[in-house]
Amino acid sequence: MTTYPLSSTETPPATSIVDEFADASPRGGNVAHRQADLQILIDETGDGPAMLTVCGNLDIVSAPILAACLHQATHHPGPGVVMDLLDVPFLGCPALAVLTAAATELGRDHRALTVAADEPHRRLLHRTRIDTTIGCYPTVTDAFHAARTAPPPPPSPPFR
Length: 160
Fold this sequence. Notes:
The chain has 160 residues and is an alpha/beta fold. It has helices spanning 14-19, 63-74, 93-108, 119-127, 140-149, and strands at residues 30-35, 38-43, 50-56, 80-87, 112-116, 135-137. The chain has a 6-stranded mixed beta sheet, with helices on both faces.
């Protein structure tokens, strides 16, 4: 397993995060990044959507790591990307910006970004109107099914 220890003031170069993988994850995915309070697993197997499983806080320190992992997943040829945020206790504004950028990139190719998140995170995505570009679901199964079958949600109108 590749480990990237970070202090609270440094971010790793994006290439080191996604270039090396280990196959020792409990769910069978590739470990793209692991540090003391964050783990992102990427599974790009098969012809289905790429799957990112995130465990830990998504804040200003971890947002660049998330961006690098999502960037890799958006290049998977499947129908979209599914993110499991059920083990994310904190979802900060920088991570929301990363999710929005990834959804926009996928939308250009008529593919979807869907997330499985708990009620407080789905409420946050709804209040910030991010759920108009990202499909939000209570379970990974629902998010995975939506990424395989549904077109991405239409973009929201600009705020005035």
